Amino acid sequence: SMSQAYAQSSSVQDVLNYALTLEYLEDDFYQKGLATANLVPASDRAIISQISKHEAAHVALLRGALGNAAIAKPTFKYTADTFTNYQTFLQYAQTFEDVGVRAYKG
Fold first, then answer.
1. Other beta carbons within 10 Å of 28
2. CA–CA distance from 69 to each of 14, 15, 19, 89 (Å)?
3. Measuring CA to CA, how many Å separate 50 from each of 44, 55, 70, 71?
4. Rounded to 5 degrees, what angle do the CA atoms 65, 2, 18 make?
5. pTM of the model
6. Residue pLDDT tens, the chain, 106 long
7. Angle 42-66/2-35 helices, nearest 10 degrees?
8. How large is the angle between the packed helices 2-35 and 86-105, nearest 10 degrees?
9. Which long-range contacts (CB under 8 A, 24 or more apart) does 98-103 make?
10. What separation, in Å, do the N-terminal and C-terminal C-alpha atoms of the chain show?
């Protein structure tokens, strides 16, 4: 029925928008990290830049799939040491990746 089809597409949109929110967060996080002077060591810049490009591509893909139903990018707030301590930055990066993998699996 039409109401079942709408309910199904609505839940798909919700799931995609949840994924989009995670991707917005990761995209924002890596962009800010790369833009912060002296945070990412030269030896890691290439890999962090590659991850950042992947997150931006994920955002673009989900926004494209959702079209007008895509939520706007929220404003993210980080703890004070997120972009001053590289080990903290890496711990957050690992946490975001773990949450993303769990979200896509579950």
1. 18
2. 9, 12, 13, 32
3. 10, 9, 25, 25
4. 35
5. 0.85
6. 555 555 556 788 998 999 999 999 999 999 999 999 999 999 999 999 999 999 999 999 999 999 999 999 999 999 889 999 999 999 999 998 787 667 666 5
7. 160
8. 160
9. 99/22, 100/22, 100/23, 100/26, 103/18, 103/19, 103/22
10. 27
- CA distance linking residue 62 with residue 78, whole number of Å: 24
Question: 99 — phi, psi (to 5°)?
Answer: -60, -45
Neighbour tally for 105: CB within 10 Å? 6
Q: State whether residue 85 is helix, strand or coil.
A: coil
Could you identify the residue written with the tokens 């799939």? 65
> Do 16 and 65 meet the contact criterion of CB atoms below 8 Å apart?
yes
